[in-house]
């Protein structure tokens, strides 16, 4: 029994430790030209292409859906990655670059993001990143995933890193606290 309890505690500590403990803000601003990691699908576009009225390719953006979790209904991308907001950001402009964007990849899109099940399409938007890529926003919050979250799981809720809290997002666009 003691071994089981110790094993559970060790696994929980590893899961929490996976979020990191860097509380610095040195990489939180747009001070690097490093390419951020992406939550795009393997096709590189975060979606599929269709033909527009003029016959040219028309990109379909990344789909955002609401699904149940241990924190209630929250946002996920179409690859079942939990979506977070960075509470430090008070506008739709991203402040997560460099090491921050490696740990918390921005949710990127080619084309307009798509509202899936449980999502208010009126809250979806985009913002341009310093490297020219397009990041999905929801209720004017830039969206991120966590690099080590397995699909369908939330491991880093309410974690303080890079100068602010990381919180999952409810379908109403508010942070889950």
What features would you describe in this structure?
This protein has 177 residues and is α+β, with helices and mostly antiparallel strands. It has one domain (2-168). The chain contains two helices and eleven strands, in the order H-E-E-E-E-E-H-E-E-E-E-E-E. A three-stranded mixed β-sheet has the order 4-3-6, with no helix packed on it. Strand 7 (124-128) and strand 8 form a beta hairpin. The longest helix has 16 residues, at 2-17. It starts with a helix and ends in a 9-residue tail after the last strand.
Annotate the secondary structure layout.
Layout: H1 2-17, E1 49-51, E2 57-59, E3 63-69, E4 72-77, E5 84-86, H2 99-103, E6 114-115, E7 124-128, E8 134-138, E9 141-142, E10 159-161, E11 164-168
Parallel strand pairs: 3-6
Antiparallel strand pairs: 1-2, 3-4, 5-11, 7-8, 8-9, 10-11
Largest sheet: 3 strands, mixed
Helix content: 10-25%
Low-confidence stretches: 1-17, 22-56
Enumerate how many helices there are, as a single number.
2
As for the number of domains, it is: 1
Index terms:
177 residues, 3-stranded mixed beta sheet, disordered N terminus
């Amino acid at each position: 029994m003691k071994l089981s309890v110790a094993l559970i505690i060790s696994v929980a500590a590893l899961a929490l430790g996976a979020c990191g403990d860097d509380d610095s803000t040195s990489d939180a601003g747009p001070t690097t030209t490093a390419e951020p990691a992406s939550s795009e699908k393997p096709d590189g576009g975060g979606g599929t292409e269709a033909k527009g009225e003029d016959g040219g390719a028309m990109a379909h953006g990344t789909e955002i859906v609401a699904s149940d979790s241990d924190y209630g209904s929250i946002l996920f991308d179409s690859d079942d990655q939990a979506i977070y907001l960075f509470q430090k950001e008070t506008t739709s402009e991203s402040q997560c670059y460099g090491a921050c964007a490696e740990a918390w990849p921005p949710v990127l899109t080619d084309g307009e993001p798509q509202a899936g099940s449980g999502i208010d399409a009126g809250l979806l938007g985009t913002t341009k990143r310093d490297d020219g890529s397009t990041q999905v926003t929801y209720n004017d919050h830039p969206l991120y995933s966590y690099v080590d979250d397995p699909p369908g799981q939330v491991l880093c809720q309410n974690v303080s890193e890079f100068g602010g809290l990381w919180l999952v997002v409810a379908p109403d666009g508010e942070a889950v606290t």
